[in-house]
């Protein structure tokens, strides 16, 4: 009997130990495996964050971990979907809208000092008495004349709510005395139509710079009305280096050139209802010739303009193959003030083609520069992606817009690695400010860019900028300097002229004797950009293989 009790006791202890062991093992196993039995693809992220928060050995800033994880997830989708943190969203939205609260100056970080390059006429800065060449020592209560000042910090300090006041400490004319100004922020238009002018009698030129905003269409129409008043009936719209942006402006611009009931663009996606944009027939440029200039950077909204004009046989496209971005992003706001800008649809131009060119995200830049399909009148095309324009011309999808006339030999084709180093180190802007500052009294006498340009051409500008670059980390390379001399000079001249005469004066100087523009003018002179001439492909007479 005693033996039986002992045996029962031992069995009970063993059984109890096994049960406790199993429970502990399951508990540890469950924790180490992230409670796998209860995970789904949708709650795994939250479970992992919860475990990190409760059990990681050191304290964790969960906001930083979450932000980093979201950034990584979104970046893995495609090159165009992005996560925008709450502290960056305001400026991002302002850039898309084309308006922000500011004082109306163009500034530059020059030798660890914020300098005013020029002052916009009629702005609050102009009314307060700020001048080009002024050095900003402090903004409100923060010193801005020291090492460590970044462009991001300067922009954040200068921008703000419309109607709010800004306190600036200014040094002027090399004086150590600080003058204090109080300047009220006003609504500032961040212009995208940087320049428009009559480039030849009856021909208007419009440069839409690096992006489209929601205000680009209004800026475009302002330029058109001015050019029409000068008697312009044909137009060159330069979309080179324009990465796209707001689709609504692109659609409205195309509408001005088309007769009624013509498809401009349509879009569709998994959860995106099919959207078709059709011309309303009220455009004021239906009888005008138009040439669109594009290059390998022209993307998105730029491609909608060029592609719709091409597919409707409405005008000529001249330049290089465009970038090839056929996707639409939608901005989704989150409750903490951040946002996701997510690819939600593909767009298609009237022929039915989607222009999207596939890239590897990490090799995007290299692929753009090495892809030979961007260049030449014998550009690489895929016959399986052949489509047809309104009147039957063959066009191709899947690789951006292939222009009607390729023209690689632009001023930009003379850009050596030396020139690109000058751009990368911001030498042009820095040199132009120093030269302008040293010669301000002389250059202030010129009231138009033509006379100032003639004066500058007589000065040793090339020698001066090469020496300036050498003193600022760009070694002299004589062969490359000679190769790009014309464009180095044009760029330097343009920056100097714009310091005194504003952004409007930059492009007439920078694009002086641009062979792509010369080709566009020739096409317009011959009437090759009228619809009937485009349909019959008379422009082929201009193609030089």
Automatic annotation (TrEMBL):
Listed GO CC annotations: outer membrane-bounded periplasmic space
Keyword Glycoprotein part of the UniProt annotation: no
Pfam family, one: Peptidase_S41
SMART domains attached to this UniProt entry: PDZ (SM00228), TSPc (SM00245)
Superkingdom of source: Bacteria
Transmembrane parts of this sequence: 7-28
Domain (PDZ) ranges: 89-159
Gene Ontology process terms (BP): proteolysis; signal transduction
Family: Belongs to the peptidase S41A family.
Protein name: Carboxyl-terminal processing protease
Organism of this sequence: Azobacteroides pseudotrichonymphae genomovar. CFP2
